[in-house]
Amino acid sequence: MNYPGGIKASRNHITIYKNRGMTLEEDLNITNQFYQEEDIAYIYKKPTPIQITKVDYPSRKEAVIKEAYFKEPSTTDYNGIYRGYYIDFEAKETRNHTSFPLSNIHPHQIEHLEHVLRHGGICFLIVRFTTQNETYLLTGKDFFDFLKHSTRKSIPYTYFLEKGYPIPFEYHPRLPYLKAVDEMIGGSYEN
Length: 191
Hints:
Distance between the termini: 38 Å
Helix content: 25-40%
Structural class: alpha+beta
CATH architecture: 3-Layer(aba) Sandwich
Radius of gyration: 19 Å
Number of helices: 5
Low-confidence stretches: 5-21
CATH class: Alpha Beta
Largest sheet: 6 strands, mixed
């Protein structure tokens, strides 16, 4: 039996297909667009710096990049400003249901987050456990505490349950992560 909203049901099982295929990045981009349109925050996805070396120009409107390479390693995915605070974060997804592999974060990204934190910015990770369909914000402080006190090669899911801020899926904004940021800075969310 099929119900509205992408829900399929059988006698003993209900499956929700709504938002399948939607990535964390797409959700964050939609959220950040909402924050900008409502003049709540200005946070954007940073482009990856590339050097274009070969372009095919059949016409000006139909130019196609044929060859390019990364100029330098990118830092983190998103940055911007919210209530006078500099915000910088990395967004990652994992299919692993028991932990988040640290190999998903590159050393230069960790170094970048350390600099942001040391200079008074707000930095964090947003991690989606796709098998659980759960998203968490882990503060830079808690991330670096874990790195300092653990020799594990992954952050356990239970650490996110204990230390992370759950980010529920909503309509507007889609992923209201600024509610967690407000808790971090001791303010109240204005939406």
